[in-house]
Amino acid sequence: MQKYYAILFVVLLIALSPISASASEPFSVFACEPEWKALVKAIGGDDVKVYSATTGMQDPHYIEARPSLIAKARSADMVVCTGGELEIGWLPVVQRRSGNPKIQGTSDAVFFASDYVSRLEIPDSVNRADGDVHASGNPHVHLDPYRLLKIAEHLVRQIKRLDPSRAENYEQRWQIFRSQWSEAIAGWESQTSALKGTKVMVHHRSWSYLFDWLQWDTVAELEPVPGTPPTTRHLTSLLDIVRSDQPAAILLASYQNPRGAKWMSRKADLPIISLPFTIGGSEDARDLNSLFDAIIARLVDAVSKSNE
Ligand SMILES: [Zn+2]
What is the pTM of this model? Predict the structure, then answer.
């Protein structure tokens, strides 16, 4: 009986202890885009609670700093975003208005994925005046799976530093993620190896890192400047490129306006491939693996058809 009371006492002590209550609270992450939410979840499992500020059907360049986003940022222990100026129009406002001291400025708890990989398309001169939304290089780094792995490695290190009591759990999940992801890369590469050198047109430079990995060529962009809608004048000027380079297709993210792509498709007799840009951009893109599966399957299917 005495032993029973002793156990009861210990149980009560644990239940009432404020320290144990806060230790069981998940680590709270505010992610800017669904791909980073998925990556945090893959590494954090039940130890984290993640919110994504945007969905796969929104343009992450143009988001409003709505009160609901600010409210979510208020309780965040960490912010995980793309960086490279992608969220420059809204994230600083969310950080400031949240009043959350943990996530201000360049705090350790503010993680920008694109800071950890080499960035493509860095312009010689800054071109913001023309409305260029990629003035410090292309920020869309998540579609090269090797860059994603490198980002994940840095993300794990940072989460472990910020939430050291659960570091072992994060480390274990990271090891599993790394080996599964490397295996998945091998599968995607074997599906696409015969298509190296494929030429495509794109609406926006959303796929530069994907094609850097797959060794495909982007011969032209429908936007005259990244972030500026296609004009008839610009599209007409691209018809020469279509004739000389003979791209296989026009690529469009499912959230992007298809008007320019449709115009070009009619004039140049090219198929349009609509792709999920991130998780939630199509029904089958539910997590990082199925996002890449969905993109690769659509590319392989469309390009094989156009080669027939
Ligand atoms: Zn962009």
Answer: 0.91
* CATH 3.40.50.1980 domain locations along the chain: 19-186, 193-307
Interatomic CA distance for residues 136 and 256, integer angstroms:
22
Give the distance (Å) from ligand 1 centre to CA of residue 8.
Answer: 59
pLDDT of residue 23: 56
| CATH for 193-307 (3.30.1330.30, 3.40.50.300, 3.40.50.1980, 3.50.30.30) | 3.40.50.1980
205 CA distance to ligand 1 middle (Å): 6
Q: What pLDDT is stored for residue 101 in this prediction?
A: 97
- CA 138 to ligand 1 center in whole angstroms: 7
Q: What mean pLDDT comes out for the span 153-167?
A: 98
Residue 54 near residue 34 (C-beta atoms within 8 A): yes
Tens digits of residue pLDDT in 102-113: 999 888 999 999
Q: What's residue 19's pLDDT?
A: 44
Distance from residue 63's CA to the centre of ligand 1 (Å): 13
Ligand 1 centroid to 277 CA: how many Å? 11
Cβ pair 195, 303 in contact under 8 A? yes
**Contact 58/255 with Cβ under 8 angstroms?**
yes
Distance (angstroms) between ligand 1 centre and the Cα of 90 equals: 15
For residue 24, name the pLDDT band (cuts at 50, 70, 90): confident
66/69 Cα distance (integer angstroms): 5
Tell me how far the alpha carbon of residue 229 lies from the centroid of ligand 1, in angstroms. Answer: 12
Distance 162 CA to ligand 1 centre (A): 30
116 CB neighbour count, 10 Å cutoff = 17
Mean pLDDT of the chain: 92
Tell how far the Cα of 40 is from the centroid of ligand 1, in angstroms: 22
Domain 19-186, CATH class in plain words: alpha beta
